[in-house]
Amino acid sequence: LQVGVTNTGAVYTYHEKQKDTKQSGWGSQQARYSKDSIKDFDCCSLTLQPCKDPVVTKEGHLYEREVILEYILHQKQANNKKMKAYEKQLKKDEKTQTEEKEIAKGEVVTKFLTTEKAIKTKRENPFKSEKSEDQAGPSCNKKNKEEEIKTMNINTNAQEKKNLPSFWIPSLTPQASQSRVEKPDSKVYCPMSGKPIKLKDLISVKFTLAPADESDKQKSIVARKQRYICPVTRDVLSNTVRSAVLKPSGNVVSMECVEKFIKKDWVCPITGQKLKEKDVIELKRGGTGYSSVGKDSLEGKAYGPTMMVS
């Protein structure tokens, strides 16, 4: 394999190696991502777009109300579908058990009739021919044979009905083993934290708009660089500033406000309501799939075959 190395010197420099690796497609590719790759603190955790009607969970994950409601509804429908499949399986198991009981009962009857037939209740008369015995009780022998045939037919029909294969459906062929459906969980879990989420636990969020500059007055809120501020400290809220939601009112304040003002007497500085420690929910700041949450610089790396040069 020729990579196209044009170096004629004794030293293969790092710059030349990177250049040849990029041209050949060999080696691991690494790139640094800017802040544009990080989800903003006021964006929905599912759509990654700024929220128009934001709600927050108890763990601090922000969602668009319409999006998270649609997610919860979809998960509930999926759980109901799984539950119906599980109930169908239970009914099938109950039917199978009933058929097995009927087959076992039929086998017991057949065994009993066979045993009764072998038992001789009368003493044999040496002076009486076999022909006369058959003529003496033809109705009794005929009745026993009919009962025996009927019992055998019941067992055969039940067994055939149970083992009847279907060569048009792969899951019903004789060689196929049907997978068991486990009992589904009826709870809906948060897509970010993995903890149970309920509609009543979602808290409405109120952001305080930042005063617009002359250049930002004609722009929408989404297009502004500074969108929201803390209503107490007047600090601009961003991914670099830790912020929290006050559960009773839904107002978003900076964690500096929580440390300096709220934790002194646990009174909301905006509404004057009494607060508890659990009423302060810290918002989860931005993150992407490339790195952990809260980092300003991200690096993505794709591993590939390494070019070895001796």
From TrEMBL:
It comes from the Eukaryota. Residues 40-99, 227-296 form the U-box domain. It is found in: Nucleus. Residues 123-134 have a biased composition (Basic and acidic residues). The keyword Kinase does not apply. Keywords: Nucleus. GO terms for molecular function: ubiquitin protein ligase activity. This is U-box domain-containing protein.
